[in-house]
From TrEMBL:
<feature type="domain" description="Rho-GAP">
    <location>
        <begin position="96"/>
        <end position="187"/>
    </location>
</feature>
<dbReference type="InterPro" id="IPR000198">
    <property type="entry name" value="RhoGAP_dom"/>
</dbReference>
<dbReference type="InterPro" id="IPR052799">
    <property type="entry name" value="Rho_GAP_Regulators"/>
</dbReference>
<dbReference type="InterPro" id="IPR001849">
    <property type="entry name" value="PH_domain"/>
</dbReference>
<dbReference type="Pfam" id="PF00620">
    <property type="entry name" value="RhoGAP"/>
</dbReference>
<feature type="region of interest" description="Disordered">
    <location>
        <begin position="63"/>
        <end position="89"/>
    </location>
</feature>
<dbReference type="InterPro" id="IPR008936">
    <property type="entry name" value="Rho_GTPase_activation_prot"/>
</dbReference>
<protein>
    <recommendedName>
        <fullName>PH domain-containing protein</fullName>
    </recommendedName>
</protein>
<dbReference type="GO" id="GO:0007165">
    <property type="term" value="P:signal transduction"/>
</dbReference>
<feature type="domain" description="PH">
    <location>
        <begin position="1"/>
        <end position="53"/>
    </location>
</feature>
Length: 187
């Protein structure tokens, strides 16, 4: 298993099942193991939790490993997406998505401020989709130097830009441990 520290371990002792969840990419990765005994299950849990704690962060492993299919071959969809999106905005880890290296606000931070300031004036900003080409154009414009958002921009385009950035992050902006805690609290 290609480990990074975004993984979390979920155990179902009654069924002797151990699941390792990684929120990487769009769908995430899940590995489920079935132990013969409870002792074996606990050994696996301890070993995996220890390995995850020592694993590199998602940010340091981004781009090092291609996305693989179940048969071990590289996904053509994944390689196509990687070659198409050579973006300085899309695909950034959460810790780098809000602030540029120089400390100035990044695209996502500016887009969120735009929605906060002007998005309430439009209906269904995050619910209604914008034209895909307009969203791509806005990313291109930003990368070409149009770094600020003006009040007359279409809120639906900016909302879809935000959704695209969040969807294309290499890992979930909410750590798996928090997701597990939220689901547990909900139940």
């Amino acid at each position: 298993i290609d480990l990074n520290n975004s993984g979390s371990v979920v155990v179902k002792e009654d069924r002797k099942l151990l699941t390792v969840l990684f929120p990487d990419g769009r769908e995430g990765r899940t590995f489920t193991l079935k132990a013969e005994t409870t002792e074996e299950l606990n050994e696996w849990r301890n070993a995996l939790e220890s390995a995850l704690a020592q694993a590199p962060s998602v940010a340091s492993t981004v781009g090092q490993n291609p996305i693989f299919n179940a048969d071990g071959t590289e996904s053509s969809e994944a390689s196509t997406e990687q070659s198409e999106d050579k973006s300085s905005v899309i695909g950034r880890p959460a810790q780098f998505a809000l602030v540029e290296a120089d400390g100035s606000p990044a695209f996502l931070e500016k887009a969120l401020r735009f929605i906060e300031d002007y998005g309430c004036k439009g209906e269904g900003i995050l619910r209604q989709s914008a034209d895909v080409e307009e969203v791509k154009r806005r990313f291109r414009d930003y990368e070409k130097g149009k770094k600020e958002f003006s009040p007359d921009e279409d809120g639906h385009v900016i909302g879809d830009c935000i959704k695209t950035i969040l969807r294309e992050m290499p890992a979930s902006p909410v750590p798996a441990a928090c997701c597990t805690a939220l689901v547990t609290a909900y139940r």
